[in-house]
Design goal:
Strand content: 25-35%
Radius of gyration: 21 Å
Distance between the termini: 60 Å
Number of helices: 4
Helix content: 10-25%
Shape: globular
Structural class: alpha+beta
Strand order of the largest sheet: 1-2-3-4-5
Largest sheet: 5 strands, antiparallel
Number of strands: 20
Length: 292
């Protein structure tokens, strides 16, 4: 059932509305009604006879969870919504044409990578999260990490950068999740409170890459066994329409912090020290001296 839940948790938490379950045909998302999306799955996933059957996936308000209902007998389960692993709308990516906001990128656009080459985007995943009116993003699975301007190094990032908690940055040759870098000063859990919806985007290339978001080195989508995290995106069916079945098994661009003892603490200490200098107003002077 956990694999089923992973395949069907396709959009972010939104306010619950009553949605009629309709029987449809085919193997891809067929349409929507209200705040729910109707999808086709194989009935054998529920332990029944093989054959397509329509089910409904919709968020259970107000928390970040999904209720999956089987037509006919009303069987349902509730499973946590997948957290985003992406970049927030408005984030600027370094491309062959200069900085471009991620929501304006298109498949085929050439992006500057850490290797020094410009590589074309293969696919762009999208997901959106809504909050109930009057609630806060605090504690929501979609709450991003805000990396303040120059938090990493002088001019990196060039302005505040918002990434999902599970998105990795490349620091000293190691990929470290943003949530593991939070120091409460220059790197914080924080969402723009004026936004009632958070729109996330992720870039996929022919292989796992590191690209530049507001000047900071961040990872692209990493796919394992042709699946990875694609099914979590609201437009995941687009990939199969474009490329068919995919058995890609990407190799990580760099080592993960989990594989390098002490790497997270080293970066936490470095970034915390820099944060204290920034707060004291001395980092700018030191940065200027180092650049001279």
């Amino acid at each position: 059932m956990s694999n089923l839940a992973k395949e069907l948790a396709l959009s972010g938490p939104v306010e619950l509305t009553d949605v009629e379950i309709n029987s449809v045909a085919g193997g891809a998302p067929q349409g929507s009604k209200g705040d729910g999306n109707v999808f086709i799955v194989n009935n054998s996933l529920f332990g029944g006879d093989p054959g397509p059957e329509a089910i409904l996936v919709f968020p259970a308000a107000p928390g970040p969870a999904f209720r999956i209902i089987r037509p006919g007998d009303g069987t349902s389960i509730v499973t946590p919504a997948p957290p985003p692993i992406c970049l927030l709308k408005g984030t600027r990516i370094e491309t062959e044409q200069g900085l471009v906001e991620i929501e304006n990128l298109r498949i085929g656009d050439r992006i500057q990578t850490h290797s020094g080459q410009y590589k074309p985007i293969k696919w762009i995943g999208r997901m959106s999260y809504n909050r109930v009116l009057g609630s806060s993003w605090r504690g929501n699975v979609a709450e991003p990490v805000c990396i303040a301007q120059s938090a990493i190094s002088p001019g990196v990032p060039v302005r505040d950068l918002y990434v999902s908690q599970g998105h990795a940055l490349l620091l000293a040759g190691t990929l470290i999740l943003a949530k593991d870098l939070v120091n409460g000063l220059t790197i914080t859990l924080s969402a723009p409170e004026e936004l009632s919806q958070l729109d996330y985007f992720h870039l996929e290339f022919g292989q796992h890459e590191v690209v530049y978001a507001e000047g900071a080195a961040v990872e692209s989508l990493k796919v394992l066994r042709g699946r990875g995290y694609r099914e979590a995106f609201s437009n995941f069916a687009e990939f199969e329409r474009l490329y068919g079945r995919d058995d890609t098994n990407m190799t990580a661009y760099a080592r993960r912090a989990a594989d390098v003892s002490g790497s997270i603490q080293v970066q936490l200490d470095r970034l915390a020290a820099r944060a204290r200098l920034l707060r004291a107003g001395t980092a700018a002077a030191l940065d200027h001296k180092a650049a001279a």
